[in-house]
Design brief:
alpha/beta, seven-stranded mixed beta sheet, 17 strands, globular
Length: 393
């Protein structure tokens, strides 16, 4: 990262982690009336290939960076026909991670008070009236806040009750025109044959180039070659492509926790604030985080501008949290195939309402309408499980 090295041991804000969430916070801080504060970003400085996707109805802060946007989406199920759905007033957007990081780092480089340290973070502790970060390059003290996107989120890869979104994606470039670019393929469940929720996700950015991502919403991870073989089979089955017909341009993979944050809600008065995945910014039922991270970071900075308060970093809505818990329990129980759950949602509801629901922007009446559109027995069973669990806890 092309930012100045640390010049002090004491900063107003220390960002423990310089990924998408940490740099989003730093960007909004630089645009606020706190822009003169001393800021230190600490990160290993190692990045994997990333893609940021989101949908919005209004203009977003980073829409101009989108490599491609779509006003229609495909939904493929085991039914004989596939759905091509218009999603107005929303647009679905894809931002290349490198483009986003390049822009953000250039913007932060305009502020000489923002510094960067490439180091391993060892621990975060309270010290006097502030807090400090212990690193492989020494200790640094935060007068106001430590903004932490480094600490692990409580999700265990080997725990069958901890659902994960795990995936591996390829960006491929064909030797000839082969992709229709007018719609993104949000879910392709034609690859799903069991009760685990598995699907292909396809973003065609040009007639020759597309992202293919094999994805699971499940508790059991696979070896990398398993996903690669699935992508190869899909390219041949649905596009007639063999290894000689395309170039593999990029590969990305990841494991994203799909569970509600069990930690106590944080308020702006605290010295140590968790953001990003660490702070529960990922939408538990979808794995999407970019849109939420921008919203939460912008709101967080706006709150800090006003001074210490007991306002929460993330607003707590028990009703929405419970709906997520029920949905996740259905996927964990596997009493019904995950593909059937999404099929009922997409075939029985207007696309705009469904996307609005996934952004947590629906009211309770709209939520009830969506709840009535899904298979009754597995959801009632899951709801009773979550209620019983909350009673005994």
């Amino acid at each position: 990262m092309q930012l100045p090295a640390p010049a002090y041991r004491e900063y107003d804000f220390i960002l423990a982690g310089g990924g998408m969430a940490g740099l989003s916070f730093a960007y909004y801080l630089s645009q606020s009336n706190l822009s003169s504060r001393r800021v230190l970003i600490i990160d290993r400085g190692i990045r994997n290939e990333q893609t940021f996707c989101y949908w919005n109805s209004d203009s977003g802060e980073f829409d101009f960076l989108a490599e491609k946007s779509w006003d229609s989406l495909y939904f493929h199920s085991a039914r004989p026909s596939s759905l091509k759905i218009a999603i107005e007033p929303y647009s679905y957007r894809k931002i290349n991670g490198n483009a986003w990081y390049t822009f953000i780092e250039a913007e932060l480089g305009k502020y000489p008070n923002i510094h960067f340290l490439a180091a391993e973070i060892e621990s975060i502790t309270y010290q006097g009236l502030g807090s400090s970060v212990q690193t492989s390059a020494g200790d640094y003290y935060a007068i106001e806040k430590i903004i932490d996107s480094f600490s692990p989120f409580p999700c265990e890869n080997n725990n069958p009750q901890h659902l994960k979104q795990h995936f591996l994606g390829w960006v491929v470039e064909c030797n000839f025109n082969n992709f229709e670019t007018d719609a993104a393929h949000l879910f392709d469940f034609r690859v799903a044959f069991g009760n685990e929720c598995e699907f292909m996700y396809v973003l065609p950015t040009s007639p020759r180039k597309a992202l293919f991502e094999y994805t699971f919403f499940s508790s059991t991870l696979r070896e990398p070659d398993y996903y690669r073989d699935k992508i190869k089979s899909y390219l041949f089955a649905y596009y007639g492509l063999t290894d000689d017909d395309y170039l593999l341009k990029e590969e990305e993979s990841g494991v994203i926790p799909m569970r509600n944050n069990p930690n106590k809600p944080e308020n702006l008065y605290q010295k140590h604030l968790k953001i990003g995945t660490s702070g529960g910014f990922v939408k538990s039922t979808t794995g999407y985080s970019f849109y939420r991270t921008q919203k939460f970071c912008k709101d967080l900075v706006a709150g800090l501008e006003k001074g210490p308060s007991t306002s929460l970093v993330i607003p707590v809505n028990p009703w929405k949290i419970w709906l997520d818990e029920v949905f996740l329990q259905v996927l964990i129980d596997q009493k019904i195939a995950g593909s059937k759950v999404f099929e009922s949602l997409f075939y029985n509801n207007k696309p705009a309402l469904l996307l609005k629901f996934l952004q947590e922007e629906t009211d309770w009446k709209e939520d009830l309408r969506l709840m009535w559109s899904v298979p009754t027995f597995p959801f009632v069973r899951a709801a009773l499980k979550t209620i019983y669990r909350s009673i005994i806890n």
